[in-house]
């Protein structure tokens, strides 16, 4: 019984896919894709050196490209901000003069009491301000 090389590569790919499912380690999936690529090269008549090179290059390239993207995606996923956290960083419009001792702004469709982050700073009605923090029921703006 003589099995062709491309079948062996598919067996390797499936063999690498099993630990992927069992361990949830995406690197096994990338090696499995490398095995499929090597199977394609074998089916097209490429030699064993070409098959191994394609397997190695595709596997390493996928790991080099996909892992950093996945890491950035995983690190950037902090969930959706809600409540007062969702208001931080938004812009508001000054309704009554805002200074270090107080004032009023319109933030997210609601009127809020506000004070400036820097007590020497002040904003006049109609100006845009950025909300940097929420202190109780008071927006801290700059």
Short account of what is shown:
This protein has 142 residues and is an alpha+beta fold.
Total count of strands? 5
| Main β sheet profile | 5 strands, mixed, barrel
User: Which parts are unreliable, with pLDDT below 50 for 5 consecutive residues or more?
Assistant: none
From the N-terminal CA to the C-terminal CA, the straight-line distance is: 78 Å
Q: State the helix count.
A: 4
Summing up helix and strand content along with how strands pair, one would put the structural category as alpha+beta
What's the SSE pattern? HHHHEEEEE
- Give the rounded overall mean pLDDT: 91
Which helices and strands, and how do they pair?
Elements: H1 5-23, H2 26-43, H3 48-76, H4 84-87, E1 91-99, E2 102-107, E3 110-116, E4 128-135, E5 138-141
Parallel strand pairs: 3-5
Antiparallel strand pairs: 1-2, 1-4, 2-3, 4-5
Helix pairs in contact: 1-2, 2-3
Describe, in plain words, how this protein is organized in 3D.
This protein is an alpha+beta fold and 142 residues long. Helix content is 49%, strand content 24%. It is built from 4 helices and 5 strands. The chain has helices spanning 5-23, 26-43, 48-76, 84-87, and strands at residues 91-99, 102-107, 110-116, 128-135, 138-141. Strands 1-2-3-5-4 form a 5-stranded mixed β-barrel. A hairpin with a 2-residue loop joins strand 2 (102-107) and strand 3. It is rod-shaped, with a radius of gyration of 29 Å. 22% of the residues are buried.
